[in-house]
């Protein structure tokens, strides 16, 4: 794989997965015959385990169209598409995390915050925290219902 234009823009995980599929990457046993490098297979194997494997171009375009009214940065949209949050709280954590990473360190720009290795860790951490907060909220509701009964 050769890089033709290194600054052409960021790609979603879906776009990378779609590109690898177009080159012949798959989980089929005959994948050894395809003109795909071993490193590309590793990327492919990773991406099929992410939410990117369930996306379509239509879903992404519909999502981007719906998000125009919120005036989100391209980086925020890219991360939301890649992470594909299942709850509203998770969306806020992605947006707030990018904002905090850009603010907390004068060396971090918005772009480098996205490229940061820490971002993936913090997104997973915040997802776990979000699930914990959701469980606490459900437990709190259950206690309130029990108290009312």
Automatic annotation (TrEMBL):
Pfam families referenced in this protein's UniProt entry, alphabetically: RNA_pol_Rpb4 (PF03874)
Annotated ranges, domain RNA polymerase Rpb4/RPC9 core: 1-114
GO MF annotation terms: nucleotide binding
InterPro entries (alphabetical): HRDC-like_sf, RNA_pol_Rpb4/RPC9_core, Rpb4/RPC9, Rpb4/RPC9_sf, RPC9
Major subcellular site: nucleus
Presence of keyword Transcription: yes
Family under the similarity heading: Belongs to the eukaryotic RPC9 RNA polymerase subunit family.
Protein name (Swiss-Prot/TrEMBL): DNA-directed RNA polymerase III subunit RPC9
Gene3D superfamilies (UniProt xref): 1.20.1250.40
GO terms for cellular component: RNA polymerase III complex
Any Gene Ontology biological process: transcription initiation at RNA polymerase III promoter
Tagged with keyword NAD: no
Keyword terms: DNA-directed RNA polymerase, Nucleus, Transcription
Subcellular location: Nucleus
Domain of life: Eukaryota
């Amino acid at each position: 794989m050769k890089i033709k234009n290194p600054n052409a823009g960021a790609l979603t995980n879906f776009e990378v997965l779609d590109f690898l599929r177009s080159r012949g990457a798959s989980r089929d046993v005959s994948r050894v015959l395809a003109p795909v490098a071993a490193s590309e297979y590793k990327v492919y194997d990773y991406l099929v385990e992410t939410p990117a494997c369930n996306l379509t171009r239509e879903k992404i375009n519909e999502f981007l169209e719906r998000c125009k009214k919120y005036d989100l940065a391209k980086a925020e949209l890219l991360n939301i598409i890649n992470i594909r949050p299942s709850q509203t709280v998770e969306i806020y954590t992605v947006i707030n995390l990018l904002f905090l990473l850009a603010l907390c360190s004068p060396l971090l720009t918005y772009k480098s915050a996205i490229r940061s290795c820490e971002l993936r860790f913090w997104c997973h951490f915040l997802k776990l925290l979000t699930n914990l907060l959701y469980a606490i909220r459900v437990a709190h509701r259950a206690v309130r219902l029990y108290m009312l009964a």
